[in-house]
User: Fold these one by one.
Assistant:
Number 1:
Amino acid sequence: MDVTAYATPAPNAPLAPFVFSQREVGAHDILIDIKFAGICHSDIHQASEDWGSAIFPMVPGHEIAGVVTQVGSAVTKFKVGDHAGVGCFVDTCRVCANCLAGLEQYCLGHMVLTYNGVEADMQTPTYGGYSTHIVIDEGYALTIPPNLPLDVAAPLLCAGITLYSPLRYWQAGPGTRVGIMGLGGLGHMGVKIAHAMGAEVTLISHSPGKEEDARRLGADNFILSSDTKAMKAARNSLDLVINTVSADIELDHYLALIKLQGTMCVVGLPEKPLSIGAFALTGQRRSLAGSNIGGIAENQEMLNFCAEHGFGSDIEVIAIQQVNEAWERVLKSDVRYRFVIDTESLNA
Ligand code: NAP
Ligand code: ZN
Ligand code: ZN
């Protein structure tokens, strides 16, 4: 079938209308009529080839929420009319130790990215959520609980899970002090989720205008990273810091906030290698770690957690025709706190 989309034809080129051909629904597949797609900073990194060479034309989008409109003959998890979501990958090898452990996000074989990837045949390019439809194996699609509106649910499929997974792994909860670096798409979900888990949350931002929002979203404390007095006062106070920053920064400055044996988990993926001074780790036996999105079961757990706590993402809904402008604003840290494309506008 032909699918209407927006694509970037070449690195750093503006997004423009594009039509691609999508496979027919197979026995284990479902067809999702995409209603909303979130804009992740990773879309911009990949379209700019920040992380290396990419596949063009590129239809970005790995925060997909929609309605199931067709199911294959062997499908058991979905029926027509269900709300379904798609995150950052649409298939993995299924046989490696990590896939078998439900940690598909760390697949040791071939992971089929939702876009800027190739299918298991290692040839067919994948196209993402800035489009009207997606066909996906039911095992890699998520059920969006009915009480979560699709627009606020879409960003959970990347921003939500990327924060939920490390917060769970490092056991954020009552009695733990969690720092979130950066109040963007990922960071604002980190504040909401860590708060809902019962942790004390400190937001560390380089934007002076975000304190009020941070507190409204659930932060107990706010530190402006350029406020040297406040940064000094908060030294050695946090158990876990999740670094969502997309740009090059002085990590030592932030590592000092972590207390004895605490951890900084990196999820932000800036273009250049991170640089740290060894003393920032050795001084308080601190750990520097990283985390990548989440597996299928954990994605479902996260969606259910958000639905139970009654929150999705804070969003600005846009028409696809505003996407280039929205990307510019993301680059300026000027988004409150996720842009979501209403894909109805693709039919305009
Ligand atoms: P975003 O909405 O642009 O948020 C990034 C935030 O970083 C900004 O809002 C800003 O927060 C802060 N920031 C930006 N430039 C900064 C600078 N020069 N100094 C200090 N802080 C700065 O982006 P996002 O969609 O949340 O994604 C964040 C990063 O995570 C990206 O690199 C993305 O590719 C990556 N990512 C990783 C995973 C994973 O699985 N590991 C998944 C998704 C995305 P303040 O204004 O509050 O300072
Ligand atoms: Zn993403
Ligand atoms: Zn695998």
Number 2:
Amino acid sequence: MASEAAIEVPAEVAAVEEVAEVAKKQPHKLERKWTFWYDNQSNPKQGAAWGSTLRKAYSFDTVEEFWCLYDQIFRPSKLPTNADFHLFKAGTEPKWEDPECANGGKWTVTSNIKANLDNMWLETLMALIGEQFDEADEICGVVASVRQRQDKLSLWTKTASNEAVQNSIGRKWKEILDVTDKISYSFHDDSRRERSAKGRYTV
Ligand code: MGP
């Protein structure tokens, strides 16, 4: 019987291993740095302020780190009800209070199917880190929320008052997600005043 050392490695396998080695040594840099956040509000403490359970998890700026983090951790189907994952530009906190978000708002897409949320989240993450939006500077980040009623994804943007820019981002996002239903955009300013604030724009 041939010893293990004598087994020949097929050329394709050797090539893949070599590519993996090269990738390890020469990581593919992203255009900018991103941060994953996590918020678990499934066991809220009485009287705790909003944001007290929000945690910054990991920042990364290479394709390789992204895939590792996504594969190991950041899939919404792993989340309990009332928890969120966020991917935001490094330096921007996923809060209305952050100066980059303060005058902004969000497009929201809902989903009744868990697998859909995972897919739409991944498509959005790839579009963001791959800089697929023409108005990339206008984008703050994306939030995946698991809720009893309906899961949702929200794409946060910077300048809510700029309807043309927001509509262009909304249309592009629908294209990326292959969503045909209407989606709507709400201003953080409205959400601050009223829990179920009405959307201002629709695409
Ligand atoms: P939400 O983001 O409107 O929806 O936040 P959520 O968490 O899915 O809740 P649901 O009603 O759809 O089930 C709900 C509430 O959390 C808001 O009305 C605020 O009281 C608080 N909240 C949410 N965000 C994103 C912020 C924030 O950025 N800052 C502050 N101060 N409060 C927030």
